[in-house]
Design goal:
0% of the residues lie in helices and 51% in strands. By secondary structure, the protein is an all-beta fold.
Length: 124
């Protein structure tokens, strides 16, 4: 089993920066990728960012490219999402996820484990 715990979400102003954390525990050694998704009320879950674990290659959704950065800290088994230049449309619950599959890491169905989510609210 794998446990994922997100933290760092809060209310911020437009233009602010925020860093989300996702602490992973359990049987994580077989992971192929970790990712971040978000879901706003009444909308589908949206891909934000992903990192292929063995290569550290990163992937981003079009709406966050150039503003968000995914990174990792191996000693803490933690993945981060640095969010800069936040906009009101970034308001959502942000979820961390872990995939054991190969490829298509922008697709939510490719992920096997999910955290409980952390709320990010950006006021204008």
């Amino acid at each position: 089993q794998v446990q994922l715990v997100e933290s760092g979400g809060r209310l911020v102003q437009a233009g602010d920066s925020l860093r989300l954390s996702c602490a992973a525990s359990g049987r994580t050694s077989s992971r192929s990728a970790m990712g971040w998704f978000r879901q706003a009320p009444g909308q589908e879950r949206e891909f934000v960012a992903a990192m292929h674990w063995s290569s550290s290659s990163t992937y981003y959704g079009d709406s966050v490219k150039g503003r968000f950065t995914i990174s990792r800290e191996n000693t803490k088994n933690t993945v981060y999402l640095q969010m800069n230049g936040l906009k009101p449309e970034d308001t959502a619950i942000y979820y961390c996820a872990l995939s054991m599959a190969y490829g298509l890491w922008s697709v939510a169905d490719k992920y096997d484990y999910w955290g409980q989510g952390t709320q990010v609210t950006v006021s204008s």
